[in-house]
Amino acid sequence: MSKPVHTLSHLDWLEAEAIQIMREVAGQCERPALLFSGGKDSICMLRLAEKAFRPARFPFPLVHIDTGHNYPEVIDFRDRRAAELGERLIVRSLEDSMKRGTIVLKSADESRNRHQSVTLLETIAEFEFDCLIGGARRDEEKARAKERIFSFRDDFGQWDPKNQRPELWDLYNARVHKGEHMRAFPISNWTELDVWQYIEREKLELPSIYFAHTRPIVRRGGGIVPITHLTPAKPGEEVIDLQVRFRTVGDISCTAPVISDADSIEKIITETAGTTISERGATRLDDQASEAAMEQRKKEGYF
């Protein structure tokens, strides 16, 4: 009688690849760090790190670059999850960079999102990190589709898509000179749908704003803008209560919700499977400034 053949699911393959990449970072790099914002992708990254290194402690700290304008539900979740894991969380704020004068806003209501690169590079220099592990995925945006899994950054923290290393046969080269560093993206090959299916399979907890809820909004420039103390209604705009959820979370000034009644992970998976617009294309207002907006920020040191 033949033995039953165990077939790995596509999530098993993606998980195994991501775990291998995390272990490759730990094996090659002296001072790596894992970026953790409290968003869905970085929540998946935490679970992958648990599977890669538990019962030992993570071989890297968690790092978040806080704009000071993040949704409170997400920040509360970030702090609580790091405490539950017993891992070190390093938070550096754009407010500190502004006090030092390394970030100068053009106006008080300018989005701080693009300025994260400055504080991120200052944090890398402060702790001498030689690799940052991030949750970016290639399906998010055109510029991110160009990324290698190990992304080389020069001594100015800049990304040059023409100056990257080959990754034939899944072999990675993380060697850098002093001042240079790598960015590693273990879930590069995942899609938004993969992320939600993994969250469902692993029963991962999420900030509440990922699920449908009623929120005051205004319609502006073809998008939906949530009403907050940072994004008030403009004269003449009509404020309405609408059932929405967030597909991605970030700086309040540039992260918009989508109309949705998906109040469970199962419903979100169904909704995601039917969408034709990427999550950043639908909800990140700063990416809509131009087709090259993300690529330009990445060249300046962005995630």
Radius of gyration: 19 Å
Question: How do the strands of the widest beta sheet line up side by side?
Answer: 3-2-1-4-6-5
> What's the end-to-end separation, in Å?
53 Å
Helical content class:
25-40%
Beta-strand portion reads 5-15%
* Helix/strand/pairing category: alpha/beta
Number of E strands: 10
Order of helices and strands: HEHEHEHHEEEHEEEEHHH
> Which stretches are low in confidence, meaning pLDDT under 50 for 5 or more residues running?
none
Give me the number of helical elements: 9
Largest sheet: 6 strands, mixed
Oligomer: single chain
The 3D shape can be described as globular
For the residues shown, what is the average pLDDT? 89
SSE topology:
Elements: H1 10-28, E1 32-35, H2 40-53, E2 62-66, H3 72-85, E3 89-93, H4 94-100, H5 116-127, E4 131-133, E5 150-153, E6 181-184, H6 192-202, E7 213-220, E8 223-226, E9 240-245, E10 258-259, H7 265-274, H8 279-283, H9 293-299
Parallel strand pairs: 1-2, 1-4, 2-3, 4-6
Antiparallel strand pairs: 5-6, 7-8, 7-9, 9-10
Helix pairs in contact: 1-2, 2-6, 6-7
